[in-house]
Design goal:
Blueprint (H helix, E strand, L loop, with lengths): L3 H21 L6 H10 L8 E8 L4 E8 L8 H6 L1 H10 L2 H8 L1 E2 L3 E2 L2 E2 L1 H10 L6 E6 L5 E7 L7 H10 L10
Antiparallel strand pairs: 1-2, 1-7, 2-3, 4-5, 6-7
């Protein structure tokens, strides 16, 4: 069994390398999927399923950007960064959960600057989440990032939850197309 110190070291190493990896994606489509897959992988936060949405209250719209489901994602993080075109091909052809998330457009889940818990729960249910958790963060132009995810295993301790919250801002550096 891994101790807290080893997990923390592995997490910090993964997060420390992520900005350099993001820069390497300049001009590559699906950059948010690369980052989401890295954040979800066991080497980082070990999330078992996740969906990332960009929410624009001004336009009353939330658009699915990327999804991660390990049963649909056999890529290990090193392989996707070393061969981004194969990973993009996989995302476009075989990653059904990612495709489902990317096809979703819903009304904004933010009312008066706060997440509507009913709308969030409904979205999670549409995506087949059993025990969803939610994270939100501010993005450019008064928009919000919204992550619905599941974590199997012991609950994330407070320091890891803080790191997850902070790490989601890395998605702001990716083009959302």
């Amino acid at each position: 069994m891994e101790n807290k110190s080893d997990r923390h070291e592995r997490l910090m190493k993964s997060l420390a390398h992520l900005p350099k990896k993001i820069v390497s994606l300049d001009g590559i489509e699906h950059a948010p999927a690369f980052v989401l897959h890295e954040l979800c992988h066991d080497n980082c936060f070990g999330l078992s399923k996740a969906a990332f949405f960009a929410d624009s209250p001004d336009f009353n719209s939330a658009k699915g950007i990327a999804g991660f489901d390990p049963s649909h994602a056999p890529f290990n993080p090193d392989a996707m960064w070393q061969d981004p075109q194969s990973f993009i091909k996989f995302l476009n052809k075989d990653a059904q959960f990612n495709q489902k998330v990317r096809q979703m457009v819903t009304p904004s889940m933010f009312k008066n600057g706060e997440l509507d818990p009913h709308a969030a729960q409904q979205l999670a249910q549409q995506l087949g989440f059993q025990n969803p958790a939610f994270r939100t963060w501010h993005m450019k132009h008064d928009n919000y990032g919204f992550l619905v995810y599941e974590y199997q295993g012991a609950p994330l301790d407070a320091s890891v939850q803080d790191q997850l919250n902070n790490s989601l801002y890395l998605l702001n550096f990716c083009p959302l197309l």
